Amino acid sequence: MSYPLRSVVPSGPRRRSLLASVAGGALLVGCTDASGDSEEGTSGSQSVTRKARALAARDSVGLLGRYDAVIAAHPAVAERLGPLRAEVVRHAESFGGTVTRGGTGTAASPSASGAPAAPTTEKAALAELAAAERALSDRRLTALVDLPGELARLLASVAAAGAAHAYLLTEGAR
Asked: Which of residues 110 and 49 earns the better pLDDT score?
């Protein structure tokens, strides 16, 4: 009597579902504008929205600096990080940040700080970048409860993309 072979299904999200969520997040980011939230009714909520957008833009520009530092220190990963970095650029721009042609950016306020130097090994650099993506994604998810509809949806979409980036950065190390 022969027994059928059991297929082993890895735990965690599938790569296709993560890529689909990143693509969906990109569509949501592309469908929104940085002009404001349609649900803003009072000057208080407009102020909260402006501050949240400025913080999100500054955070994305800071993350972009981390990507640039890793690419500069480890050029071999430039092709792999290119699409993820391009998403971070779109995230910064969707929150009102600006990114110059050379890749550096400024947030809504001029106090955007530079990124720390990348670790000396490629594996450590990618792990640190994944940790930065994960931490920023978590902070953005926490901030959702205080934001009005459209901005909350945008922030949720960008947070999901960041979580997918963290997964993709760590998956390549396996």
From this structure: 49
